[in-house]
Amino acid sequence: MKVMFAGSLSLVALLAGCAPAPEEESPRVLLVEVETAQKQSSAEKPVSYFGLVEPRQTSELSFELSGTVDEILVDEGERMTAGQELALLDSTRLEARIQAAQAAVKEAEAGAKLSGITLDRLTRLVERDAASVQELDEARQARETALASIDRLSAEVDALQVDLEKSTLIAPYDGTVAQRYLDSGASVGPAQPVLQVMEDGHLEAKIGVSPVTARTYQPGDPLEIVDSSGRSLGEIARVARVASKRDNRTRTVDLIVDIESSETLLPGDPIEVILKESEDLSGFWVPRKALSENVRGMWALFVLEEDETSATKVSRRPIEILFFETDRAYIQGPLQDGDQYIVSGLHRLVPGQQVAIKLNE
Asked: CB within 8 A of 5, min separation 6: which ones?
């Protein structure tokens, strides 16, 4: 039995020696998406400017006449529509004057009627030589004077009617009552503010920029707006006008921008406007997704290189970010025009790793 057992072991060893050795597995090659670096000699750099949101129209409403405020029909914060009555002056005396003037017109009309009858009578008498020509001329003069009195008194009535209309403050446009200065019973003089109103639905801002920057913008150009919390609202503004002179205090030129209706912006809110200024600065535009964090808070790109065996491997190159723009960054670093860099799957990469370019289907 011992001999047979030893022989069995020898047979197993012999068979094991004849078995083929396992083949070495080739390293797995990762497929990556790449873009090609294109060097730029200059770039449009985003620059922040600040301004305040304002309504396009703000008005101080006042009466043209002096008097006593009879009633204020609106309160602060109330919405108004164009043509709406906002405040009234006490018009009791004015209405009485209108009635007196209208009565004077009727009296003048009666006098004119009588002068007309007299003129007709004298005309017939002169034809029969029963009255003198002088008497006829005097009758004509009286008739013309009576008619002129009607015109004068009618004009007085019209003027008083205009004053009566001006005893009511009317909303000049759709908007909101921003401030109320007086209450009912207050005495008011001509041009004394009664209400401050603001137009609704049309916001604007004045942004002071350098004259060089101002010349690069035209009416209608879109602008990105950032609110006071730092949140971008997108391109909700457009250049409306470019001022034709410098501000005497700041020596800047105003860009007046129209802002689309926004639920988050109110008159008086500070905003940040992102403008683009051209700068002679060489570098490369790369998508944000291609950026990888490097040591000490720096940034890097994974760039493709060929080793001595012509295998494509990953190289980590440190770069400097000059500025960001939405989904891309302008960078400088050890990058050459035509270099290919990886734009996806960065978490799976390590320097020296072999990769292959994924072809677009």
From this structure: none
- Cα dist from 358 to 28, 84, 288, whole Å: 14, 68, 20
A 10 A CB-CB count for 53 gives 19
Task: Read off the amino acid at residue 6.
Answer: A
pLDDT value at residue 59: 94
- As a whole number of angstroms, the distance between CA 236 and CA 219 comes to 14
Token digits of residue 104: 């004077």
- Are 328 and 288 in contact, with CB atoms under 8 Å apart? yes
pLDDT in tens, 142-170: 889 888 989 999 999 999 999 999 999 99
Does pLDDT of 2 surpass 50? no
Apex 346 CA angle, 342 and 348, nearest 5: 120
Rounded distance, CA 149 to CA 42, Å?
Answer: 81
Burial 174-202, CB ≥16 within 10 A → b, else e? bbbbbebebeeeeebeeeeebbbbbbbeb
Give CA separation, 189 vs 65, 94, 97, 182, 186, in Å. 6, 16, 20, 12, 10
Tokens linked to 245: 């002179």
**Per-residue pLDDT reduced to its tens digit, 322-344:** 988 878 999 999 999 999 999 98
Secondary structure, 3-state, 197-257:
EEECCCEEEEEEECHHHHCCCCCCCEEEEECCCCCEEEEEEEEEEEEEEECCCCCCEEEEE
| Residues 53/268, Cβ–Cβ less than 8 Å | yes
pLDDT digits (tens, 9 = 90+) for 191-209: 899 999 999 878 999 999 9
Query: What sign does the dihedral 343-347-352-355 (CA atoms) show?
Result: negative
Q: What average pLDDT does this structure show over 164-180? A: 93
What residue type is 138 in one-letter code?
A: E
Cα–Cα distance for residue pair 332/325, rounded to 1 Å: 15
Cβ burial of 6 (10 Å; 0-12, 13-18, 19+) is exposed
